[in-house]
Amino acid sequence: MAEDDRGYPVEPNLLISFLFFNNERALFGLLTEIDGTEVHLRADQLLQSFSAVHPYVAFEGLTNDDNQQLLSVREAAEAWTDADLWNFAEMDGTSILINAEKAGISEEAAMLISLAVRGKIAESAIHPDQISALLPHLRKYGWPGETVSAMPIRVAFRLTEPELDSDNEWLLETVIFGERGAHWTPAVRKLNASAIDALPAKWKPYAAEVVMKQSEMASFLSSIDVEVGESFLSVPMSDPEVRNFIKDDLPLFQSFGYPVILPAWLKSVTESKIRVRTNAGVQSYKSATGLDEVLSFDWNFSLAGKNIDQETFRKLVDENREYIRSGDEWFHIDPLWLRKIRDLMDQADAGEWTVKDLLFQDVPEEIIPLEEDEEMDDPLFQFSMQQSLRGYMEMLSDKKGLPPAGVSKDLKTELRPYQEDGYNWLVFMRDNQFGACLADDMGLGKTVQLISYLLNIHSRSDTESPSLIVCPTSVLGNWQKEIERFAPTLSIHTHYGPTRAKDEQFITLIDQLKPDVVLTTYGTASQDGEMLAETEFASITLDEAQNIKNMQTKQSRVIRKLRGKHHIALTGTPIENRLSELWAIFDFIHKGYFGNFRNFTDDFIIPIERDDSEADKRKLRAKIRPFLLRRTKSDPDLQLNLPKKLEQNEYCPLTTEQAALYESFLDETKFKLQTLNGFEKKGLILKMLSRLKQLCNHPALFLKEPHTPAAEMLTRSSKLKRIVTMAAEIAGNQEQCIIFTQYIGMGQLIRHCLSELHGIDVPFLTGSMPKGQRDRLVEAFQEKEFPIFILSLKAGGTGLNLTGANHVLHADRWWNPAVENQATDRAYRIGQTKFVHVHKFVTIGTIEEKIDKMLVEKAALSADLIQSSQWLTELSDTELDDLLSFNN
Predict the structure, then answer these.
(1) Which of 311, 324, 455, 684 has a CA 20 to 30 Å removed from the CA of 624?
(2) What integer is the mean pLDDT of 834-841?
(3) Cα(113)–Cα(44) distance, integer angstroms
(4) Under DSSP, is residue 547 helix (H, G, I), strand (E, B) or coil?
(5) Helix, strand or coil for residue 858?
(6) What is the pLDDT of residue 411?
(7) 181: left (phi over 0), alpha (psi -120 to 50) or beta
(8) pLDDT the model gives residue 270
(9) Residue 269's CB: how many other CB atoms inside 10 A?
């Protein structure tokens, strides 16, 4: 890109006109690639552009680095047009490199020239085997077709076919294009005369240049053995020689811009195609083992509408033919493409591909089934599948109709139909040794589907090692509670905390306990990764798998090295459009599927993110589809199976800091209670409960500390981290949520973290907010102007219509269930058309969990008994002792 001398950007098309002002062969840059304000040049185009000096335009660098690069470009451009340059060229395998020291140029200039040579060869029809033969030509004539001539005439070769019904041979001769395009050849009597004698008087001054150009072109003639002297070329050719000329020589002449005149009927040869059709099938369809069935293919070929047998096709490929004659017609075929198809046939007929390879697209793209909305105009290669195979493929792709795995009688809940489909799919993927990514929307029951799967595999006699679940610290307690609730027969070991067993202790403990499930956190797994990697687990599940999205972090690298017989990723966020995250997750669930990250970047990230390539998007979607199961709450098939409202507890552990403060405060309170009378005791209990609830939210609220950086605040409270993460995830899914809290400090803390960590500006409705502002915020939320709304329980618990939200988060528990329900009903009310998911955050082992259990028990009693929090002060001494105990 460039600026003019006044600092204004130079429009790309104008820049191209400056660079290609004398390059007719490049159509004066007409086909040059433009990207915004940038002009993209290959190295050879760059050198050509700077090999001639523009009469009115001068270039200089915008920076010192630019100037240094321009010096290298000019040096390389000058050398590029010097015939002596190629005397310092050397073969390196199938590449031509310039020896900078021998050529007397800089390494940078030599590198540019070598890149230019590589680019020129890549766009030419030169076969790698022919490159070494190109070097002598370069040394004598320079790069083919690059020399600029001031002659008003052009030298060409002409191939003339034999006259009909004659014994004459083909004729290859040199002709001259005149100024008006007429073809000139010497008279018969002057065929053996020197060019200077044979040429008309007006062209005699150009005789030496004409002879040189003819000699330059003739150096590429491999089909005939001929010596070119001072006279014009006129050589008879046999049919075999003509075939070789058309197959081997003609592509080189055309690549290098040397004009060749062919018979008129040969001009249409490139319009002819060989067409290949194949139909794939398998011998049998066993639902459990069908993926291992070997594909069988039948092959059909046609040329210009006429069928060709397989033997003839293979012969064409073996002879490396590019131009062939059938009857009275000539046809052009692409030998590289034919070789590719022949190799594909050999692989297919050797039984290298199974239904599994076809499903996961580990096959050449020619035989990948098209998506329904894809069309190919007039394809050269047509792939089809037998109807029975197509039906089987659709079953596997859609994950419906899979063999039932049988739900364990030990599962203490009933799976919804779509959950049973997900469970069957997880078991199917395990049995066929494929990783799986279960990416259902939040609230659709990924946890219970995984628990059903764990019951299945740990009821098998061949399962000897435990399954590992790695999750964020904030949901560790949730997993423990959910497994105990839905699968009490599964034994659990929690590998977490400063007193956890390590190294030999861990191995001994696992041997003794023989747990079915080991629960740990990402942080712990990262620290103990080397130790955990020594065990091959029955399965490894990553919950909130997006935690390994940054593949360069230690946490991601360590966790991707863990070993399990089956790897599963659970995530509630769509991963199809987060490409680096997608690679990291797939590197865990099915290692090697996408190769290394650099290959994935080249194959998908660059073409999709930079070029917005629809073809590559389709290809990527097709490749991840078999490994990914994602259902959303908006799916009409699922909506029928969902309740209008789902309430669930989100269990969070205390951090070490919170636990120490909690125990210390309990001891202090118990001592005070022993010294107080009945009335004073009730007051202290209520005050203590409020303080403990604040501590369960965050120690900074309990200690009355100011806010520190958000990332630091999250480390001190698993509950806060879980709330912030969940709210950001909801917003990221284009959904809305309302968050209720009793404490102004907690609302401000959540708001601070969402703003600083996720860039989400969250309003906080409190009792002090004027009615006008309050109404405007409610209206804006309903109009989807912002995704998250924080409300104090007293100010926002009644009188508001917030049906825009389909998630309700209760950050802290109110001891009066009716107050909580009224708050929930801000979203779950008439006018709500979406499924509402209510999340109640409970810290494990604390008063929050204990009171939650009491509320469940007392719900069966008289409603007015628990209409206020006063019932807490009426607890018996035994109940109070239990309430004031801490189960860490």
Answers:
(1) 455
(2) 90
(3) 8
(4) helix
(5) helix
(6) 96
(7) left
(8) 43
(9) 18
Q: What is the sign of the dihedral through the CA atoms of 134, 137, 138 and 143?
A: negative
Residue 436, class by beta-carbon neighbours within 10 Å (0-12 exposed, 13-18 middle, 19+ buried)? buried
Cα distance between residue 883 and residue 880, in whole Å: 5
Q: Which one has a higher pLDDT value, 84 or 372?
A: 84
On whether the CB atoms of residues 725 and 771 are closer than 8 A, the answer is no
- The residues pairing with 172 across neighbouring beta strands, listed in sequence order, are 159, 235
Tokens, residue 371? 């998506």
Instruction: Give the max Cα distance, the chain.
Output: 137
What domains does the chain contain, in order, with CATH numbers? 12-141 (no CATH), 154-262 (no CATH), 270-398 (no CATH), 417-639 (3.40.50.10810), 646-883 (3.40.50.300)
Lowest mean pLDDT among 194-203, 210-219, 270-279: 270-279
Q: How many CB atoms lie within 10 A of CB 660?
A: 13
How far from 840 is each of 336, 475, 775, 848, CA to CA, in Å? 64, 13, 26, 10
* Alpha-carbon span 531 to 11, nearest angstrom: 60
Strands (E), 433-592: 436-438, 467-471, 492-495, 517-521, 536-537, 540-542, 563-564, 567-570
Global pTM reads 0.57
Choice between 769 and 409, residue whose per-residue pLDDT is larger: 409
3-state secondary structure 787-818: CEEEEEHHHHCCCCCCCCCCEEEECCCCCCHH
Kindly report the length of the chain.
Answer: 888
- Asked if residues 12 and 35 have their Cβ atoms less than 8 Å apart, the reply is no
Helix axes 64-80, 107-123, angle to 10 degrees: 60
Tell me: the pLDDT tens digits for 332-367? 666 666 777 777 778 777 777 777 777 766 666 666
Distances (CA, A) of 838 to 590, 599, 643, 739, 848: 34, 43, 12, 10, 17
Q: What are 605's two structure tokens?
A: 């990230």
Helix (H, G, I), strand (E, B) or coil at 850: helix
pLDDT at 374 exceeding the cut of 50: no
Q: State the average pLDDT over residues 474-482.
A: 87
Separation of alpha carbons 662 and 702, rounded Å? 10
DSSP 8-class letter at 293 = P
The number of angstroms, rounded, from the C-alpha of 700 to the middle of its chain's C-alpha atoms is 41
The C-alpha R_g of the chain, in whole angstroms, comes to 39
Q: Report residue 118 as tokens.
A: 């590589």
**What is the spatial distance between Cα 823 and Cα 836, in angstroms, rounded to a whole number?**
13
Supply the DSSP string of 734-748, one letter for each residue.
T--EEEEES-HHHHH
Q: Is 289 helix (H, G, I), strand (E, B) or coil?
A: coil
Q: How many CA atoms lie within 13 A of 407 on its CB side?
A: 19
- Going from the C-alpha of 738 to that of each of 26, 396, 475, the distances in angstroms are 62, 39, 20
User: What residues pair up with 732 in beta bridges, in sequence order?
Assistant: none
SS3 194: strand
The DSSP symbol for 637 reads H
H/E element holding 453? Answer: helix 446-457
Whole-number Å distance between alpha carbons of 672 and 684? 9
- HSE value, Cβ hemisphere, 13 Å, CA-based, for 614: 3
The full DSSP string for 211-268 is HHHHHHHHTT--SS-----SBPPEEEE-HHHHHHIIIIIHHHHHHTT--EE--GGGGG
The rounded distance, in Å, linking the Cα atoms of 791 and 736 is 14
DSSP 161: P
**Structure tokens given for 665:** 């405060």
Kindly state the percentage of the chain with pLDDT values over 90.
Answer: 27
3-state secondary structure of 853: helix
Would you list the DSSP string of 689-718? HHHHHHHHH-HHHHHTPPP--HHHHHHT-H
